């Protein structure tokens, strides 16, 4: 199964996706790690390079029969469609999960107070997050709103929604 996480920085996407990866013992792909490693190697990242690397690694791991968790902002329709294409090309099931924080004050607080957990990674400012292009969704998907929930409550909500998807 391919678990496609999406959401703006500071919503709790990495917290939830990494917890799910630990629980499932799944391959975990975080585009921020890939892009920072590419920068560290001297590459200038200005486009989809990190996503393209993640698509390829996801495909390889899905072919091995492993679950894959993709942790990316995934802000536009083409990136979302490309993740679906990765799974569909291998006839692998997938689920799309959008993590949001509908309380703007809380979201801003998170963005402004968090510390980078990737050496050398520069976190976006609140202005960059709030002005980022983020297309509306054009299809059904799981939405997890972390605004008024603890991490544990958000994880429980995610697990319940995933269980419903698996039963289909």
Q: What do you see in this structure?
A:
There is one protein chain. With 168 residues, the protein is α/β, with parallel strands linked by helices. It has 7 helices and 5 strands. It has a 5-stranded parallel sheet, with helices on both faces. Helix 2 packs across helix 3 and helix 3 (49-63) runs parallel beside helix 4 (77-89). The longest helix has 17 residues, at 151-167. The radius of gyration is 15 Å and the shape is globular. The mean pLDDT is 95.
Provide the helix percentage.
40-55%
Number of helices: 7
N/C terminus separation: 14 Å
Give the averaged pLDDT, no decimals: 95
Q: Poorly predicted ranges (pLDDT <50, ≥5 residues)?
A: none
Q: Looking across the biggest beta sheet, what order are the strands in?
A: 2-3-1-4-5
| Helix-strand pattern | EHEHHEHEHHEH
